[in-house]
Amino acid sequence: METGFRALSTAAGAMVLVIIVAIAIFLISKAVPALQANTENFLSYKAWFPNDAEPKFGIAALAFGTVLTSIIALIVAVPIALGIALFLSHYAPKRLANPLGFIIDLLAAVPSVVFGLWGRDVFRVPVQDFSVWLNKYFSWLPIFGGDGPFGRSILLGSLVLAIMVLPIVTSLSREVFQQTPLMNEEAALALGATKWEMIRTAVVPYGKPGVIAAIMLGLGRALGETIALALTLGIVFNISFNLIESGGNSIAANIANTFGEANATGRGALIASGLVLFAITLVVNMAARAIIYRRREFRDSAA
Amino acid sequence: MAKRIEASNVSSYYGSFKAIDSISMTVEPKTITALIGPSGCGKSTFLRSINRMHEVLPNARIEGRLTIDDQNIYDSDVDVTAVRRMIGMVFQRPNPFPTMSIYENVVAGLKLNGVKKKSLLDDAAEKSLKSANLWDEVKDRLARPGAGLSGGQQQRLCIARTIAVQPQVVLMDEPCSALDPISTLAIEDLMFKLKDQFTIIIVTHNMQQAARVSDKTGFFSIEKTGDPGRLIEYDDTQKIFSNPAEKKTEDYITGRFG
């Protein structure tokens, strides 16, 4: 009995490794022939023609679009999410905080294709108007320059992403803020802190590792988001910081858009792009862990 | 530095529940006053109403007057944060800020008050840690986490943090109940030393402690669960523990009830 259970759990643990290795072997074996057939530099070429007789494709524009949309989404979403989280955990009366928190969790349950369709058909109109306004008054900033057309742009994709990331960051941060020990909050108040000073002294530093983890989870979702971006970005292969002109593309959106008509080399090329996305996500996660790890001494001794 | 505290007919409520009823007492500057009594008798509630910390709980309110050198701290024009800066508090369980170093913990209150100059903060940290009898133990590791110290050291760190903002009064809510006897003695020694500068009020369950450290003792009690706590007797510590005027006090200190 004892040995049987031990063998069972060991096998289950080993299975994870086996599956991961098998997937890696499969992906690399598909990607390598396509990369060998590529007549351009995969890392720096900015277009995607893997189905031609002389395949030409590169990840540069896609990786750029992926990272740019995700970063803008976080820049928009994180301050709002932290504001909502602090409001729910420390300012709102309980009767309001619980239903509001529930609604935000519901937002996380909306399928991304719904966000994509809504972004393409409904949200595009106000974003377009906003883009025209930005272009009129701020065109001296390169990111708001250009002559249009404005519509399915980096801005639209990023804003839709921001809405999708918001509930994750909000609900995790709220939970972390709520866990601040009451005795630490009282210690700050007893020193003569106002409520906001108490939050800055006791709540925010205590929650920081958790908030970073929440942001990284949000970033992970943003980087991997497929269908919502496939529907809202302009699907243009270029590297441009212009946010409002029709344009933008991402690795995952490109896979969704082009997998259907891809030949063997084309599929291999898309798998190679998927590996790049995996590498980006891995680097982001490791960076996040490093940040959390650095303050480990303080966190552990607090327990 | 130290100030006189005068409570007259202070009653405290949580919602409709009356926690203490009509407490009146005067605490002289630079003395140690102990508040003793059975659990739930309102002594902590009374203590927390002196620096308005009871307001942290929802629906808490108070009736009566509580003056510090003739200033009613419940006047509508009084800033609650100013009251708490003037009347520091040490809690039952040591509560250093877990994300801060020893040094950051001590100067946390000063930073809240807008002190930014490094030399001022350094001086205050050294002075407060010396006053709290902790300097020699931590001077070589000020950048280490405050929560990494032992329980007794943490509590002295919290005392250092409290006195760093130079309050007039220090309230202690069972400061030794989570500590071992040796750490408890260290805190008691410290209280004698601090008496030169501060008015100290301590809530304690340990009657020997009250007898050892305090000049005056107040005995709180309740009739039965759900009743408000009342101040039964308030007198010189020596009198309370040798010849109390009230039968209830005598029963309590001799261990016949509570």
Automatic annotation (TrEMBL), chain A:
Signal peptide positions (record): none
Transmembrane segments: 12-37, 57-88, 100-118, 150-169, 226-244, 264-288
Gene3D superfamilies documented for this protein: MetI-like
Keyword terms: Cell membrane, Membrane, Phosphate transport, Transmembrane, Transmembrane helix, Transport
InterPro entries membership: MetI-like, MetI-like_sf, Phosphate_PstC, Phosphate_Transport_Permease
Cellular component GO terms held in the UniProt record: plasma membrane
Compartments, as annotated in UniProt: Cell membrane
UniProt GO molecular function: phosphate transmembrane transporter activity
Record SUPFAM superfamilies: MetI-like
Official protein name in the record: Phosphate transport system permease protein
Family: Belongs to the binding-protein-dependent transport system permease family. CysTW subfamily.
Membrane topology note: Multi-pass membrane protein
Gene Ontology biological process terms from the UniProt entry: phosphate ion transport
Keyword hit for Transmembrane helix: yes
Domain ABC transmembrane type-1: 63-288
Family annotation (Pfam families): BPD_transp_1
Superkingdom classification of source: Bacteria
Record function comment: Part of the binding-protein-dependent transport system for phosphate; probably responsible for the translocation of the substrate across the membrane.
From TrEMBL, chain B:
Gene3D superfamilies: P-loop containing nucleotide triphosphate hydrolases (3.40.50.300)
GO biological process: phosphate ion transmembrane transport
InterPro entries in the cross-refs: AAA+_ATPase, ABC_transporter-like_ATP-bd, ABC_transporter-like_CS, P-loop_NTPase, PstB-like
Protein name: Phosphate import ATP-binding protein PstB
Gene Ontology cellular component list: membrane
Transmembrane regions listed in the UniProt entry: none
Keywords: ATP-binding, Nucleotide-binding, Translocase, Transport
Lineage per the UniProt record: Bacteria, Bacillati, Actinomycetota, Actinomycetes, Micromonosporales
GO molecular function: ATP binding; ATP hydrolysis activity; phosphate transmembrane transporter activity
SUPFAM superfamilies registered for this protein in UniProt: P-loop containing nucleoside triphosphate hydrolases
Naturally occurring in which organism (per UniProt): Actinoplanes auranticolor
Name of one Pfam family that matches: ABC_tran
Domain of life: Bacteria
CDD domains, sorted: ABC_PstB_phosphate_transporter
NCBIfam families noted in UniProt: 3a0107s01c2 (TIGR00972)
Limits of the ABC transporter domain: 5-247
